[in-house]
Design brief:
alpha+beta; 9 helices; globular; disordered N terminus
Length: 344
């Protein structure tokens, strides 16, 4: 397996508790192995609660306010370690293992539910003995819990406890769609005929849940960070978009590397030009420029939207290009946030 494929399949994917969400994974959920490490649950949750209590006081509403309890890649999942003493560091791999929630900031019901469920999965069946005994056979939990990591009654009971505690619903259906146009039709019908993306985007492989939570992959053309004011060139970057509707528990997180490597700032996109020549401002978003990946994040009230751009300040990333702050702001400006915010 080459470096780019390895990187794509491991550290730059939206993840559930069982690993990266990919089309082949969606079709074969019952055959997955899982990610967990023995953790002291009380210590993990105490850390997360402390973050929630101090977030407003110390202005942590950036990436740190989205941090999930720590976890380490496990040999049992098939994930490689970040580095190997025999082969050294792979330049395409994200160095570091910080993961963020894609559902909301610390202290929200969705974030706290994610923290508890992730911590439970990290400590449950640590050697995989229960899962190995079940194998690829039916578990009896396929229907009601098909979109979650549940293969025993104990896991089902824990998930139900967490959902009841935070007053969240389960996902009941997920469908793979043929195109971005079909995604827009599913979200808002003819009211969303033009979509929410400008022409610089090429979206593909969307899927959608029953409540309007969705994900798609895409390519986007952005200015290259070349350090020369008199020279302009474009590069094509791969990215992922995830919209999580609040009130429903979506079991996903995103591994971003080392959170200390990101430069973060807030930005208010100027929006799509109107007939009178004005640019209405969009909602304030978080921009984060990292070495391997970069992020555009927006809390839209009823939903939480994350764009994970597979490029950054280090050339050795999945897109094989370097982008800067200007590119991230252009990316944010290329999204019609008012359309996304109006999605039911």
């Amino acid at each position: 397996m080459d470096d780019r494929k390895l990187y794509c399949d491991t550290f730059s994917q939206v993840r559930s508790a069982r690993g990266p969400i990919r089309l082949e994974d969606i079709k074969m959920r019952k055959n997955h192995t899982i990610l967990r490490k023995i953790l002291v649950l009380a210590a993990v949750l105490a850390l997360f609660t402390a973050l929630a209590a101090t977030a407003y006081a110390v202005d942590l509403f950036g990436l740190r306010s989205l941090l999930l309890p720590p976890s380490t890649p496990s040999q049992r999942t098939g994930w490689p370690q970040v580095s190997d003493p025999e082969i050294g560091e792979d330049p395409y791999l994200v160095q570091g293992n910080d993961a963020i929630s894609l559902q909301g900031f610390v202290g929200t019901p969705e974030a706290m539910a994610t923290a508890e469920w992730r911590a439970f999965n990290n400590r449950y069946d640590p050697d995989g003995a229960i899962l190995a005994e079940i194998g690829n056979g039916p578990t009896g939990f396929e229907g009601e819990y098909d979109h979650y990591l549940v293969y025993t009654q104990e896991m089902a009971d824990e998930l139900e406890r967490i959902l009841a505690k935070y007053h969240l619903k389960k996902h009941t259906d997920m469908r793979i769609l043929d195109s971005y146009h079909e995604l827009c039709q599913e979200l808002a019908g003819d009211d969303m005929a033009q979509g929410f993306l400008m022409g610089m985007h090429e979206p593909y492989t969307p899927y959608i849940y029953e409540d309007g939570t969705f994900h798609y992959d895409g390519d986007v053309n952005l200015p290259e960070a070349n350090g020369r004011d008199d020279y302009y060139s474009e590069v094509t970057c791969m990215y992922q978009c995830t919209r999580c509707v609040k009130g429903t528990f979506t079991d996903i997180g995103l591994t971003i590397g080392d959170i200390d490597d990101f430069k973060q700032w807030t930005y208010r996109p100027r929006g799509v030009i109107q007939e009178d020549g004005t640019y209405p401002e969009g909602p304030e978003v978080i921009l984060a420029l990292g070495p391997k990946v970069s992020l555009v994040i927006a809390d839209l009230g009823d939903s939480f939207v994350t764009f994970n751009i597979l490029a950054g300040t280090d050339f050795y990333n999945l897109s094989d290009c370097v982008i800067g702050e200007n590119a991230l702001e252009i990316f944010a400006d290329s999204i019609d946030w008012t359309v996304i915010a109006r999605i039911p």
